[in-house]
């Protein structure tokens, strides 16, 4: 029986970016299926008790930066700690991932490429030309994918996916849900791996 992971995330999350390789390794190890579910950043902060980075106390922001640097060094992952295009409006990018998922395309490759664009390549995922280029690089028909992403159906899917995440107690990115159990944070992937090994 296939092992299914629901992966809720922000396409602007540095922690989701740092998790890419290890999460993909765990998915491959267990032959798992992943439902890629990007969700609204600000709606999640507002409704689930979070504080946007810009409103956090300077001490918390300093610690966040220290942790990003520690993890990037530990994992040997290249990273721009203050990316040129962050924060950005991820709406169209998120709806592209959802459209790819709905069509049975490689939503994971696209999601990973978008995160990498923000945190390693200094690219603006709010810019449609940039999104078209990323989609092409991932093997998609960019015009068709963007057209579908702009549809009312995908706009509603994005809203519904965000609401669904909140109903499932998702308050941050990345959150992986397997068999009803939430694993929040790139530093919980080992626990996800163990859960996948149990059944």
What does this structure look like?
There is one protein chain. This protein is an alpha+beta fold. The N and C termini lie close together (10 Å). The protein has a single domain, classed as Glutaredoxin, CATH 3.40.30.10. It has a four-stranded mixed sheet with strand order 2-1-3-4. The model has no long low-confidence stretch (mean pLDDT 96). It contains nine helices and four strands, in the order E-H-E-H-H-H-H-H-H-H-E-E-H.
Backbone structural class: alpha+beta
Poorly predicted sequence stretches spanning 5 or more consecutive residues:
none
Helical content class: 55-70%
Discrete helix count: 9
Please indicate the count of domains.
1
At CATH level 2, the architecture is 3-Layer(aba) Sandwich
Say which CATH homologous superfamily is assigned. Answer: Glutaredoxin
Q: Write down the CATH topology.
A: Glutaredoxin
Rg:
16 Å
